[in-house]
Each structure stands twice: as structure tokens, then as C-alpha cells.
């Protein structure tokens, strides 16, 4: 029996199933019911707030409390489908803890050590990681958190065995454990309180209650570190933006926010993919509401940065910025060529992750090129052979490549525009259907298929790009990303 696959709660941790914006591992801050925590010493009234204890993040003289961060997490993720799945997991963990206490089930250190070894063996056999510490480091899971989760997984197994009258050595499946836990929750009853949980309770099952702080802490533990750092950065940036504009009245701010909401609503209504579906319905499907959107610092940052640049620049000054940096803007946003790729990974010295040399990759691509008679052939071969997952899922489509497209190696960009320039020299302004390659880049080799040329944008379109770049520079100057320190950095 594959112990990883058949242990319901723990299997989600091992395979790191990804929720939208959340990692699949369900971690819990519950302590062992057999251990009493010593009282926390009270800090002196004059003590400065400390990162990791009082503060979630800081940047010089700007700081962010955990309370502020948690409020954002609850509004941003609390009602989403995946957030609700996380809430269900948290409720299950609390119920398991209560049932374990009632049944007087204790998990010994010997039990934990044995299961740790079993999991480590399974991980190594599956090729996931050489050992559990390496796996935990890869996934950003704290060892103590994982051990607590492992303890509750063993509790879950023991409770299911007892309920099904199974002997200690008798096999038990993940389905049996899930079925037992679902039926247990159904019998106890589960009540979900209305958002935004103003009474402080998010959900309850019999005597078990999940509070807003419980749920926020759970989300904070489940979210990938990069998402948490981004949330901290956004909240700190919002603070600095508001401080930079003390003359902006609350009423004016409200009008700006409502204007952005209406702009997004209009954009949604104009999108053919959403015909007949209201903006509110789309938000609801994501577990969001208009109030959640209005509160989100991402929207506030967009609104205030646009407002700042609009006050600072008119059309004349935007044209001056463009003229001074024309090569930069044309390279990033100017004419481009629709491009498709078949990518093969390669290295100078093959290894377990990259099994071929550059020469071998180029030879394979030459064979594939001989099979291409149309763009449909290219798309099909890309879907079958390309080792770049993003473009492969789109039939090899890289999108529009400009002369300085970020994320596209120079060794790929140069041949595209060399082909375009050569076509122009011959009196043709079209390279669609051209196949280029094999071409090398740092991670391998590829074939390119060129499509339609996109002309340079009008000034109205370029002005929007210039404004966007100015907003980006303004925000970086206001709060440099490397100036933010979070409790996760400790």
C-alpha cells in the first residue's frame, strides 16, 4: 500500500496540491492537548513593536501589523472556493483534536519517528525529494508545523480505525478516512456564519468554533511566502501612497475608487468571454464582492498611482518623456511579430534534469522541422514535443515578441527581427509562415514559426504605455521592493 496516496490528510501535504493562490498543505497552529504552553511574558508598555511578534512587515519608518495583514487575507481569500476548502480543512483539524482528546488518543514520539521514516522512504522512491527535510525546504513548510500536521494525520487514522473496528495492522485507505470524517462532520453539523463575520465566528461544528483570527492565521500559514510578501508590500505601498497625497479628501478618494470599479465593470462587459455575465457575478464566482475589491490595496495602488501621474503629466510632457527614451519604449512596446516555438531543454553537460546536449537538441529539432508543412503542423508538434509548459499548452504560442521583449532571450529576438528586416529589404513587410532555427538559448534550443507583424502603436496607445512606465517608476521610488522586510525573512 502506498502510504502517501492512501492517507487522506497527509497525502495533501505530500503532493502539495495547489489551491488558487494557496498551497495545498493544510497546516495548523494547534498545540498538543497534552502540553501546557508557558504564559507569554508581557512586554513593557514602552517596548517598540517587534517584527514577527507585533509586526508583519516594515520598510524604514513604515510598518504593518499582523492585524492589518490578516484583514486583507480574510477579504481577499476568505470567501474564495479554495479559501473555503482551506476553512473546511481547518475545521476538520480542530474537530480531530477534540475527538482525540475525548477518545484519549495520544501520538508518541516513536509513532511520529516511524511515520516520518516511512514517508521519507516513499518520497525518495517517488523521486520527489531525497529526504523529508529537503522536501520541506523546497515547499517552505516549517518542520514543527509539518510534525504537528503529521501528528493529526495519525490521530485521524487512529479514530477511523476505531470507528470501523479495524485492527492495528489492517490496511486502511484514504477513502475510508475521508468518508468517516465527512460523516462525522455531517452528524455534528457544520454552520457557516455570514461574511464578514462581524461576531468573530467564521464557522462552527458542535462545540468547535473557528474564529476570524483562527482562520486568518491558517491562511497566513497556507499561503505561499511570495504571495504573503506581495500582500505586505502592497499594504505598505498603500500607506505611503496615501501619505504622499494628504490633500486627497475621503470623498475624492471614494470617487476615484468608484471610477476604477466602473472602468473594470465596463471592461468586463466589453469582453466577449463574459457576455451575459455581470461583473458582480464574476466576482462572486471568485468569492469576492464589490466591497472586497474596493478594500483591496491592489486597486487602491492602481487608482492613486494613475491619479499621481495624471496630475504630474499632460500630453506634452508625456511626449517629452517618450522622445527622451524612444528606443526604450519602442523596444518594449513598438512593432512586434506573432511567434510560436517548439522548445527542447539542453545543457552543455547533460544531467538528471536536462538529459541532452545542445547538439542533441538541435538534431531533434532538425528532424521535427522536416515534418512541418503548415502552421497547424507546427502547433501539433509543439503540443507533442515542446518542453516549455506555458507555450506548449497554447500550441507553442509565445505571443507578440518585440525587439526588447522581457522574458525572451536576445538570441531568439534577434533572428526574428533580422528576418523582418531582410523581408523589408526585399520589398515585403510580412514574415508570416517563416520557420527559424534551431536557435540556441541558455536553457536549450528551439524552432520558431513567425506569424503576423503587429505595427507600432498609435501615439494614443503609446501614451498609455508611457504613463504605465511612469507609474511603475513612481511606485518603485516610493517603496523599493528590497526595502521591505517581513517576518518571513527572519
Structural description of this entry:
The protein has 490 residues and is an alpha+beta fold. The protein folds into three domains: 3-33 and 62-223, no CATH class; 227-326 and 462-489, no CATH class; 335-455, Chitinase A, domain 3, CATH 3.10.50.40. It has helices at 3-6, 8-14, 66-77, 81-103, 109-126, 132-139, 143-164, 174-188, 212-222, 225-244, 250-270, 279-285, 290-295, 297-312, 315-324, 326-333, 358-369, 375-385, 389-393, 410-425, 459-478, and strands at residues 55-59, 62-65, 191-192, 201-205, 208-211, 336-345, 397-402, 435-441, 444-454, 485-486. The strands form three sheets. A four-stranded antiparallel beta sheet has the order 7-6-9-8, with helices on both faces. A three-stranded antiparallel beta sheet has the order 2-1-10. It has a three-stranded antiparallel beta sheet with strand order 3-4-5. α11 packs across α14 (297-312). The radius of gyration is 28 Å and the shape is globular. Residues 1-41 have low confidence and may be disordered.
At a glance:
The chain is an alpha+beta fold and 490 residues long. The protein has helices at residues 3-6, 8-14, 66-77, 81-103, 109-126, 132-139, 143-164, 174-188, 212-222, 225-244, 250-270, 279-285, 290-295, 297-312, 315-324, 326-333, 358-369, 375-385, 389-393, 410-425, 459-478, and strands spanning 55-59, 62-65, 191-192, 201-205, 208-211, 336-345, 397-402, 435-441, 444-454, 485-486.
